[in-house]
Amino acid sequence: MGYPDTFQGFCVDGPTTWNTFHKSELKPKPFGDHDVDVEIAACSICSSDLHTVTGGWGDYKGPLCVGHEVVGKAVQVGQHVKHLKVGDRVGVGAQVWACLECHLCKDKNENYCPKLVDTYNAQYPDGSWAHGGLASHIRAHEYFTFKIPSALDTNVAAPLLCAGITTFDMAAYLSILKPGADFHMVGLPDKALPEMTAGLFAAGAPKLTGSHLGNHQEMDALLKLAAEKGVKPWVELMPISEKNCGEAFQGQKDNKFRYRCTLTDFDKAFSKA
Ligand SMILES: [Zn+2]
Ligand SMILES: [Zn+2]
């Protein structure tokens, strides 16, 4: 089997072998009218990925394919998908589905939907599993698939999909906002925010807000802001492979990257058969 019936992904088997990756076949959910299939070009590594594979957030059963800062090309779109077409460069973050019917979803709080499906290690209501971005493809609902502005490079756009804007130079980002504008944290860093002076807030009256992930509109706004202002996450690149996945996750654990590791060259790692 192969795409579109199965995807290939670099997976781990369990917390005791968290930095040993092997290529496995993954079965995606059945393709729906609102789904988008993305042929992945790059995926950066988030602390959540590390917390998950090491078992920090609980035990799991492999093969598990993590990764939720995904950029690639839309290769199949469901018949009801309106805002994307085949060939678009798109990104997928830490959420791939919500009911879009409950009052939270209707209030643009789909990132708090009680039925939400995370990008990996999560099950859809029909029982199928969601698989992450260290893979040949990812299947996500169109509402959680974002068009990447052309000004953003694929490898540096990837971290925006979850970390959003990492904390290392939050002060710099706050200072470039329009006066009174919002700086919305869409990531959940596991470290304290950096010290910020009162002067920074006095200068431009920026508002600092936070949330779990961020909703659809905020993600679009973030990508637009990054494209317009030339915001570039600092990334170190590594071609994806079983060995490099292990090294990348070890490096993430050792806090070695300045400041994000983006795995690249997916086209070479996955056959197009
Ligand atoms: Zn993340
Ligand atoms: Zn909902």
UniProtKB/TrEMBL annotation:
PANTHER family: ALDEHYDE REDUCTASE. Gene3D superfamilies: Medium-chain alcohol dehydrogenases, catalytic domain, NAD(P)-binding Rossmann-like Domain. It comes from the Eukaryota. Pfam families: ADH_N (PF08240). InterPro entries: ADH-like_N, ADH_Zn_CS, CAD-like, GroES-like_sf. Keywords: Metal-binding, Oxidoreductase, Zinc. GO terms for molecular function: oxidoreductase activity, acting on the CH-OH group of donors, NAD or NADP as acceptor; zinc ion binding. Residues 32-149 form the Alcohol dehydrogenase-like N-terminal domain. SUPFAM superfamilies: GroES-like (SSF50129). It comes from Metarhizium anisopliae BRIP 53293. This is Alcohol dehydrogenase-like N-terminal domain-containing protein.
